[in-house]
Structures are given as C-alpha cells and as structure tokens.
Amino acid sequence: MLGVVLAAVMVGVGSGAGAVGPVAGGPEADLSHHGHVSLWDGRVGVWLVSENHGPSDVSQATVRLAFSEPMAGGQELPPACLWSSDRVVSCRTGALRAAGGVGELALDLRTAALPEEMTVEIATVWRDGVSDRNSRNDRHRVLVLATGDPYVF
User: Fold this and answer.
1) What domains sit in the chain, N to C, each tagged with a CATH number?
2) What pLDDT digit, counting tens, does each position of 117-131 carry?
3) pTM of this prediction?
C-alpha cells in the first residue's frame, strides 16, 4: 500500500499536480527541513527532520534529496522512500500536524565512486495542496566534503 501511495505522490510531482506553489484560498503551512549530511569513504549519511510550523496540518508531503554524485545500485531505502534516479531519493514525510508535527529520516548510502566532495539539494516537492509562503526553510543546498564531518543545514 505504501508503494502505491508513494508512487501516486511521485506521479503527481512529475505532472505538476499538487505543486508546491501557493494555493489561492487554500490551507497554508510552513514546512521546514533541517539536519546534517556526512560523506566519508564512499558513504553518505543524511539525517533529516521535517517540521510543520503551521497554521494548518499537512496530511502528506514529499521531500527530494538530490546528490551531485551517483549512488551505488541495489541499495535498500526506508519504507517511506524510493529511488527517482541514481542521484535522487524521494521520501514522504507522513502527516505533519500544525505547530509541532515532526518527521525524521535517516539514510546511509554508498556512492558509486569515492568522491572528495558532493552537493546535496534538499527540497519539498509536494505538500498535498497546502501552500507555503516561506519556502526558504524547506530548500537547502549543502556542499559536503569527504571528511566524515556533519555539514548542517
């Protein structure tokens, strides 16, 4: 069932349905994503917290993590995530209540090569028709060096 729901969300993203732009007269929420990314020995660790600062609940949202380097094939993802390509993972946040809804995600991935650095872009790509006038806190671009250090966003 989760795969069907997530696939429907991903199809909606590609077709423009449920777009992230403002919805005239519809509910409004303020989603944010924060966390850190680490890169070491061909491994990428991502810890992501998604929050809803309100005023409306969000029944479902999708966050996309786009990597500048391809990931190794055959890797399993958490149940709420799917591969969009060898460089993109899309994950649903689950329901986020207004002013306090929090979703957490942890990924441990292998890169196809051993990059010395990479860029990770984090963005909300779908939020079930809810508008967000403050999209600055749900879009990030992080340069990560292969030091093992956590790069915070």
Assistant:
1) 2-19+27-152 (2.60.40.1510)
2) 999 999 999 999 999
3) 0.83
